[in-house]
Amino acid sequence: xxxxxxxxxxxxxxxxxxxxVIAGLVTWYLASNTNEAKARRAGAVLGPGPKRALxxxxxFNFPKGxxxxxxxxxxxxxxxxxxxDVAGLPMVILNSLEAIHELTDKxxxxxxxxxxxxxxxxxxxxxxxLPFLQPDKDFTEQRRLFQKAIGPRVVHEYDSFVQQGCSELxxxxxxxxxxxxxxxxxxxxxxxxxxxxxxxxFVHHGQEAIQKNVxxxxxxxxxxxxxxxxxxxxxxxxxxxxFPGATFKRVGNQGRIYADAIRYWSFDQVKxxxxxGITDESITSKYLDEGGISExxxxxxxxxxxxxxxxxxxxxxxxxxxxxxxxxxWQKRIQGEMDRVLGRGNTPTIDDIPKxxxxxxxxxxxxxxxxxxxxxxxHPSLLHTYSPIPGFVLRDPRIWGKDSEDFxxxxxxxxxxPSVDELPDVWSIPFGFxxxxxxxxxxxxxxxxxxxxxxxxxxxxxxxxEEHLMPNWPFEDAVIRSVSVRLQSLSLxxxxxxxxxxxxxxxxxxx
Length: 511
Ligand code: HEM
What we know:
The chain is an alpha/beta fold and 511 residues long. The protein is built from 20 helices and 8 strands.
């Protein structure tokens, strides 16, 4: 049975997104407090929203958790633009694709900022990290590097890394018992690390680098989950660490050690290897060698690969397994199509993926029905924090029809839906909007489709005996959602092991 390091916790890798969202709320809370008054003076009508109390606005009826559920409820009650105001601090929740495009695409110049909390960005030093970067020169350069390296026209150049990860995943699932999330995290994390820094680095330093990322991201997560006085009064950052009550200083100093490790350590190892004449394929070595993009841009952009890519991709794969278990007739249809198109017993290659229309439809429906980041990330501007809510848009009956709440991959098949070409792109909406749209989405698309196809070509995934799976499975309350699945995959012996909570899946090898 394969085992995986316990320290690779998924929640740790959720960190940057949680950080950005929480920091967004904090920044929004701390930002200008004069907008409502200004609007009133200007005779402007503020959007509808939950009842606001005098002076404190929505301070007491703003949800403490389960934001996605609360925002969805507000969307049903108040419509496409929901205005909330906590003690004079404004936020607009965007629930329609039209409104989101209007603000984040057409007016991307003013709606592409990120929150900038003092503890995380200044003291811990994460202001270099792309998810936190303000749209300045460094931001443009890092995005340019991602576009050059893994943009739509070139992402296939890294197929060998994705393929290697796939073989490793299939091996891990063979004879593996237990929670597949860790196997998925390990696989995706290794692929991203190899792509960023190369095989030589991976062999010698890969696990240490991942460990440093996990540690740093864990602290970033816990620090981001609290409101710190220093975020309210930034000048406090200058008090010494020994000062009574200066916990933020100690957290911040430790955080900086981790942030520096994420930023410099792996990059420095690759540079040292390059100086010693050791080269192999990676994004870092390619762009250091080519020039044209500054060394610091390559270094900083690559430091976000693991943290930004691992949890999102892994959780989407877990959602895929969840849906395949929930809808076994679709598993049969997809496997039947694979047998017809590829020949029974053949594992697909990446180039086969476009031929698998059922699989494509199923994965698209998974992304639509269960996006891993249904709240997206906030896009603050100078006046308001705009929060586009992809999760609401992806189930909007005006777009998807009366069955928008149902899981129905047929909506993506032209023989069942002649208007399929009019549907919005689900390889875009769950990945964000405007200038901040996920730069890793093309890599994610390739990886997700290929791994999903490979898993179904090798294993049959079944709900365990009398397990009653529900479409409205309760998700943990997190910025990046993930269903927790357990999977039993036996290749040589028949499946007979009971798998424990919360969701039991058995997968039998079909070869
Ligand atoms: C299924 C997989 C993925 C999903 C659902 C996803 C989703 C997202 C979302 C919603 C955002 C925020 C966009 C916004 O603010 O409007 C984002 C940003 C980002 N993603 Fe992804 N992502 C995925 C995979 C990846 C991968 C594989 C990478 C790395 C190669 C990556 C790198 C990033 C980075 C660096 C950002 C920050 C961009 C910025 O702030 O400008 N993501 N992603």
